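re: ur msg from earlier - yeah i can do the adenosine-5-diphosphoribose complex, just paste it... oh wait u already did. ok heres what im feeding in:
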Amino acid sequence: MAQQVKAVIARAKGAPVEVATIVVPDPGPGEAVVRIQACGVCHTDLHYREGGINDEFPFLLGHEAAGIVESVGEGVTEVGPGDFVILNWRAVCGQCRACKRGRPQYCFATHNAEQKMTLLDGTELSPALGIGAFAEKTLVAAGQCTKVDPAAEPAVAGLLGCGVMAGLGAAINTGGVGRGDSVAVIGCGGVGGAAVLGSRLAGAAKIIAVDIDDRKLAGAQKLGATHIVNSRTTDPVEAIRALTDGNGADVVVEAVGRPETYTQAFYARDLAGTVVLVGVPTPEMKLELPLLDVFGRGGALKSSWYGDCLPSRDFPMLIDLYLQGRLDLGAFVTETIALDGVEQAFARMHEGDVLRSVVVL
Ligand code: APR
Ligand code: ZN
Ligand code: ZN
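and the outut:
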């Protein structure tokens, strides 16, 4: 039976979000209804509510979530009622060329649930990023649910649903950081901080954190950075080279999403090193590099989308490492808030001491 629950709604471009009652229908074939226990506040939620990405207001927000499966529709076998799951915003399609070649992490034809949630008056609600998890319950495709060890704290587990996975994966999946490598991470917010943590997990020997905010640098040190560079006062390219015997880092992760910081990343890498762009640029941004430098420096220029993660492989593994005390995912939860605290969390997002605000239900 359709149920009424509370959820955060973005009603109009730029307007503050508000809590409203929505109707969640029963799961159809291939779908699941999940009782949300926690959902992190991500920059993309704010970008959606500011408008310009998908302006079909009103819509639901929240996509970094963990919860308990309440019911499943016909044909769903991979999860069932009572399972503790992390949600992802890109259930792979299984049909496209990437999927058929066995590289579903590059599937761009996501297969999220078709949206059937509404306001009480019947107004349709599309969920930003295909979830809508700032809500007591939400409807998703079963393929958006990954079972993990229920011993994990929901506020921590949910973070793998977006930003923290993006950063961890940028280092370990896309960058291929290995034992003994030198890594530089430019921008140490939630995403860059997770790249620092991922580099430590992968056994990097040197992890150089670069930021313009000393509080973020102090945070990065706690996550495993072996060196810190404030790029407001020190040239980061020179500093990274000096810290790597004049060579540059094996892997540089750019977690800001700006041409200047990308250019720094480009020149801070060792010849034949790898640059990973995980920060999200805006449409008007352009990169200008001497083509001869691109040619002459070799190596790989990569971008990382959702940390190139495979939820079924990466989520349970990372949760196990967390539960064993080997991966400090808890460090990313700066504060827990209620559903009606999302708008304030947006306002606090750019304060230096916030990695993640997490709604706990
Ligand atoms: N050089 C170095 N660091 C910078 C610079 C700069 N020029 N400008 C900003 N920063 C730092 C900020 O001080 C902050 O620590 O980058 C970090 C960005 O962190 P957050 O704002 O917490 O963003 P985060 O969630 O980590 O996301 C990073 O990826 O998902 C995208 O939209 C997101 O583009 C953003 C990026
Ligand atoms: Zn596909
Ligand atoms: Zn996100």
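cool cool. The mean pLDDT is 94. ping me if u need the other ligands too
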